[in-house]
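From the shared-data thread, chain only:
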Amino acid sequence: MKQNFIATLLLAGLGLLTLPSLRAGTSDTKDASITPVVAPPAESVPVSQEFLMQGSYAGQMSTKQGSSTQGNVTDIHSHFNYVASPQIKDGILLRLGVDTERNSFGLYNAAPLPNTLQSVNAIIGVDFTLSDKIIMRVEGHPGIYSDWVGPVTWNDVDMPVQIGGTYLYSKDLQFILGIQVDLKSDLPVVGLPGVRWQFADKWVLSAIPPKPQLQYLVNPSLTVYTGGELIGGTYQLNSNFGSAHGHGPGNTATNLNNNVCDFGEFRVGAGVTWKFVPNLSLDISGGYIPYRTFNMHSGQIGFDSHWTDFHNDVGSGAPYGEIGISGSF
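Structure, as tokens:
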């Protein structure tokens, strides 16, 4: 049976749609977490900036093709993201930046899997308010999504588009809906809802992909949490990938040359976030990966007649550890 778990990984980034700095014209003066947008002075354009750097290591996980066990695979995952957001008028922010994400796999002998899946892309988008309660984001991620074997070609280029909205019900409760369009993916259009609810002074339910959490606010600088994390993406394989791994043109049922790989991992764990200076936070977490999948297909909409899936049995996973630093200015 075809695995569709990877589709839920495609909303990476849409969990950042609760953007109180965009809310304009509100009459709720009690909402201290919402800063009304102020028209910029004619002589300057205010610019906010944000960044994220993180890395993780996942231990050996048994990998299967169908019911056949193939071997163990490890994963070193790294991610860097930077966005500058100039405010061009009341309630409108541009989003211009860069993002790179890399998975480096430790493979068993003769594994028909890529050693590396990496993306390097621009971020081009806009945040805007539809009302004092509704904030929208439209964002494109044009770039290279590849296994980086051989020369980069136009086949390696992709541009996922993310569209999301946040409804600010109150300062304690926000509802989020995100949609991603990626015509190379196993599901070209996917969407998920989310909610952020501060239901007590020190407790927050942040059920927002790709990192839903239940958070406990120890103090203004320290938060502990438990939850899940979804990582992955859609990547182009090189024109010789299948032939180099025994799945070339002579085996039409599993021809992986020039295919696309939808990779995904689901993680569960716990961690701590420490705001060690006002604008910088350190995040350390660890836990268990119950499921990982590599879904290879032809990169065309409606590819169900041609796909090859490598996965582990649910529950036969591996531990992981992750560390990251983030900031906003």
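The longest strand covers residues 68-89.
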